[in-house]
Design a protein that fits this description.
By secondary structure, the chain is of the alpha/beta class. 38% of the residues lie in helices and 19% in strands. The radius of gyration is 20 Å and the shape is globular.
């Protein structure tokens, strides 16, 4: 996503309008269950007195550069979803009282002989992807330095103004996982109904948190269904970019939101990234031995056969990919 409006496909089938009878129904699985739950929670206070609930609820998906974003995987994934869905910039949160410019420094950019200062901010984009279970409000920015409670209230106010029915908070963290295995990506929620509907757990982490954790908890306390999505990045290669982790997050978002994205470029980047890390490990016997021990630990943990839910998700993803991607 950029500050300008992303190019859009104007063909009727990609218009983002609800599909007519006889066309493909909402995807089965996570996306359908999630969308139906959000639709059931829409009230007259949100949709307008006397109006029927919208056919597709709006979900706000948020990621922030900084402490919550190891390998820049979360912010890259949300940005890629916006680009794939033709998202349009609809708002900004740029109060300078939120940022320490010595920590989150502004940047100078030149374009066509014109120089400008790009100040840290949080941008809000809207997308109405075709064939998806929901409409999207995508939020991407820099974790604020100050006034977190005011910042959180500001974003949740924007959510209410845009009839948001649910929130997904996306993050990435460093962990003891091998780069040679699928990147772990997990969902959790404080919403008891979502725990049951999506077969996910409540969060168990205790300790220092970032703006993603604050937003997830505050949304839940306000009665707004919220899901947290975290990817685990190999700590020995935690620097950005981390395309394999970005890909894992994008695929989780596909399953949860009913999207079909063209991930071919990210897949190529992820494969190249893994080959590069393989080469580095081969040059360092200590790292190679460490990776081998991580692989053994991971394989032991994941030894049981894949669950029926995991198999069903993979089959749904395969069926979606037989259709033309969004955008």
């Amino acid at each position: 996503m950029s500050d300008e409006t992303a190019p859009q496909d104007s063909s009727p089938e990609d218009s983002g309008e609800p599909q007519a009878a006889g066309e493909s129904a909402l995807p089965e699985g996570f996306a359908q269950r999630f969308a139906e739950h959000l639709r059931a929670n829409q009230t007259a206070a949100v949709t307008g007195e006397g109006q029927a609930p919208r056919s597709r609820p709006t979900v706000m998906v948020m990621a922030f550069e900084g402490w919550n974003d190891a390998g820049a995987a979360a912010s890259s994934a949300v940005r890629a979803v916006g680009q794939a869905c033709g998202a349009e910039l609809v708002g900004k949160v740029d109060d300078e009282g939120y940022y320490d410019y010595q920590f989150s420094r502004p940047k100078v950019r030149s374009s066509g002989g014109h120089r400008e200062i790009i100040w840290p901010s949080t941008k809000i984009y809207r997308a109405r992807p075709a064939r998806a279970a929901v409409d999207l409000l995508l939020v991407h920015g820099v974790e604020p330095s100050f006034r977190w409670q005011a910042f959180t209230a500001d974003l949740l106010t924007r959510a209410a103004e845009n009839d948001v029915s649910g929130i997904i908070l996306v993050g990435a963290l460093l962990a003891d996982v091998p780069h040679t295995r699928p990147i772990p990506a997990s969902l959790s929620s404080e919403d008891v109904a979502l725990q049951e509907i999506l077969d996910i757990d409540e969060p168990t982490y205790e300790g220092p948190t970032g703006i993603v954790g604050v937003l997830a908890h505050t949304a839940a306390q306000a009665g707004l269904p919220a899901v947290s999505l975290w990817a685990a990045i190999p700590h020995y290669v935690g620097q950005a970019p981390s395309p394999k982790a970005q890909l894992a997050i994008m695929r989780e978002l596909e399953d949860l939101l009913g999207l079909t994205l063209d991930e071919s470029e990210v897949v190529e980047d992820a494969e190249a990234w893994e080959r590069g890390v393989d080469d580095l490990a081969e040059e360092d016997a200590e790292i190679a031995d460490y990776v081998k021990r991580l692989e053994e630990a991971t394989d032991t943990t994941n030894l049981p056969e894949a669950s029926g839910e995991a198999i069903a998700q993979e089959f749904e993803r395969y069926l979606r990919r037989r259709k033309r991607p969004e955008g």
